[in-house]
Amino acid sequence: MSATIGTITQAAPTGVEPPEPDRGSRSAAILALARFEARELLLQIPVLVFLALYAGYVGWRLFAGGDGMDEFPVLQDVDRSTQSTPMLLAIAVFVCVNRAVLRSRRQSTDRHFDILPMEHWRRTVAHVLSVLPFVAITAVVVGFQYLWAVLKPGAVGHGSPAELAVGPLVVLLAGVLGVLLARVIPVGFVAPPFVIGVFVLTTLVSSLTQGKHWVSWLGPVVQDEGADPFPSELLGRPAAWHALYLAGLVALLLCAAVLVSGGRTRLVKAGTVVALAATAVGVAGQSPGEPASLITARTKASVSPQKEQTCVRHGRSMYCAFPEWTGRTADWAEAVDRIQSRSGGSAGGERLTVRQWIDARYGLQSDAAIAPSTTPGTVTVGTRWGGNRLPEFAVGVASVLVAGNEKAAGEMCDARVVTTMWLALSTQPDPVKSLRDVRLDDSTEGSAIALAPTSPVSMSAQQTTVVRELLRKPHYSVAAKVKAHWTELTSPRTSTARVAELLGVPAGGKGTAADSGSGSCAE
């Protein structure tokens, strides 16, 4: 019996390539990783602390930390005020996202990424996307700051969306820069020295170039602070070009990070070209200095504001303001009426002209003084209102009623100062506190300078004592005596001791030459 032995040969299994993930799966994987990294960033102590500080500081400024002028915001200044505070959060995000990208290197897990379906450059994109929640938080805080100011009854002016976009863009720029730095220099402790180096380099460049316009606008935030608020059309800030520059720079750094990570696709290369072009256009748009037309407009508004202003009559007086401030004339009129109601003689019915003045000729960073008017019955008011500006304006009004014009009021150092300061400050809710607020040294004793919109008022020690005692008395009891003795109280020949006698308060000791009514201002 023959047996046939059959040999069965089993074929080796053919290798099957795993299916290539579709585009939707790749996008979902990137988003999943981005969500994970965002949660990890939020748990980092620096990010958590600076985020709390940022939100807490803004909340404190809005609800409790104002100086009184916040009740009368100028919106073209409010939008710029939202830009600097996000820098704290941006630095924390920069440092922590840099560490997040380098986490695998610190933990020696880089080699495992080669067997994962997600490419290296997609992980870079996920790290950039993990910053977006913090950008969104910044945008919400900035929007809340601006909306809070807009809803105030005393708000004036117009904000700029481009200025409001700077804060969120700065946080996004910091996150993208942190990712790029980790890909270019994969060293764990490079981010903090990098921040210090950038600060030192920025300071050095600014010093060497003497703060030239085109150099300062290469930085992420350009504050332009110092001057009183300008009308919107006189700002001259290239805010839209700057926002384009920041957005283009963010896109350019993102493309650079992806390219360094190996994502050299046609789309990324095209995006790099577009981002580079947008950045260049933004730089070109923001680099030129102030045009001649802007300088001419600022000069015109500073020298002859009456040609640009709208005048509104309230009661017997006229109130002239730049168009954005016309809604505030009712507040000025209320202050003037209170002061005139306590004045005597013809001052109680005098027709005043309250005119708004700014000196915009020296730019947004120059706090230029306003020259006093020599026109009788003309009172100057600035573009700020609220806080100490209220009693300062009251001093300006009272000094014109007593001395006749602002220039004469600035030269007044005799006993008329007592009448002026009582008229101005007795109308305030807390007269003694207002006395402290308008004095340059924040005191209620001794000699000092009392501020006004134009020329300040010089107070001797004896005059200060008499004014302080008058402010502590009920205003109605003093007002009757002021009206009854108005001619003598507004005479440069009347001594401070005589004023105190007429108004029924102690004279406050030995006076100076000015207090004696001799006409000399020397101590």
Description of the structure:
- The chain starts with 22 loop residues before the first helix and ends in a 20-residue tail after the last helix.
- The radius of gyration is 33 Å and the shape is elongated.
- With 523 residues, it is mainly α.
- The protein has 23 helices and 6 strands.
- Strands 1-2-3-4 form a 4-stranded mixed beta sheet. The protein has a two-stranded antiparallel ribbon with strand order 5-6.
User: What's the N-to-C terminus distance?
Assistant: 146 Å
Secondary-structure element string: HHHHHHHHHHHHHHEEHEEHHHHEEHHHH
> Approximately what portion of the residues adopt beta-strand conformation?
under 5%
Major sheet size, sense and barrel closure:
4 strands, mixed
Strand order of the largest sheet: 1-2-3-4
Which structural class best describes the helix and strand composition? mainly alpha
The helix content, as a percent range, equals: 40-55%
Question: What is the number of E strands?
Answer: 6
Uncertain runs with pLDDT below 50, 5 residues or more?
A: 1-18
Count of alpha/pi helices: 23
Global Rg: 33 Å
